# Entry
Amino acid sequence: METNYIHEEVGGGVPIKMWTRGVPIEDAAKRQLENAARLPIVFKHIAAMPDVHFGIGATVGSVIPTLKAIIPAAVGVDIGCGMMACKTTLVAEDLPDNLGPLRSAIERAVPHGRAPGSRDPGAWQKPPGSVNTAWAQLEPEFTELCRDYPKLEKTNHIQHLGTLGTGNHFIEVCLDEAGSVWFMLHSGSRGVGNFIGTMFIELAKRDAMRNNANLPDRDLAYFEEGSRYFGDYVRAVGWAQTFASINREVMMKRVIEAAKTVIRKNFQSHIEAVNCHHNYVQKERHYGEDVYVTRKGAVSAKAGQLGIIPGSMGARSYIVRGKGNAESFESCSHGAGRVMSRGEAKRRFTLADHRAATEGVECRKDKDVIDETPAAYKDIDAVMAAQQDLVDVVHTLKQVVCVKG
# Structure
């Protein structure tokens, strides 16, 4: 198979294969990748996707295979964060001329952003029946986890199920290349996943200090199979990934129900549907070995597998089909990837810049979303060109409505 990556040797570690031809990568992100490559548990090589950029704990856009061990900070705290998209029987002409009421209906249906007067992101005051029904699938294992880690009880678990969150999480109404209407959203395991990730990252660091581990970076502390917390982490991270997937399903159902109150034409949804993680770990077989594959800002792209690669608030997004490229551990990028920090975006861009970049999209145009403006992200066309050997494009989506957390 034709390859498109840049191969870099790392002294004292495994190589890095980077799908970054034609896209920028900061020196800080390269240093993070090199640090991870020097861990004794990393198998074969590390794969860096074209949206790669410096991240908290570990590099966003990295695929890290490990033998008999997992690095909690490489998974991160937004465990199971990912995308869901579904195609409907609607076409562009079926949407109302004024998309404001559609955006408002979605915003009412799904808690998002930060609750007024609270530091906590939007949560249910009283979860509706659909949330309670979904929570029933998650509660038994959650109760088991709470027996070992009682502080989990105090998290916003059910209160965050079916809610969007903040930052780069979003809900969109999109049109594909044929004019069909899609609904798409991006979120993860919310407060409870954040608590699980933070708790186990700290436990891994504590273990490393106790064992005098010689780590290139404290954030890369890991649990080995058979160690005190390994089994608990695997159980907790698996539960959080299930929570994230169900969270997206609950939101999608509410988005569609909200749309039906505004769009007068009857329609069906889930004509085509994808629900995929891009911050997670799971056991897979690569190069004849069973390994734990951590994708932090990367999507599984096995041969024939559908995935979602979103752009930014004003750019195209893609439904893709994986090519099963072994060199990337059957992975692709999870989006465009940031080209600058949130603080830098706020310093560099004005409201006028943001309004121009999101012209034609029914979305927020205020100063609080400037850090999410399209110019803060890499060029999605360049990102897609850099990974032609990883995925084929099935659908090209352009948003007409965007709800931001």
Summary: The mean pLDDT is 94.
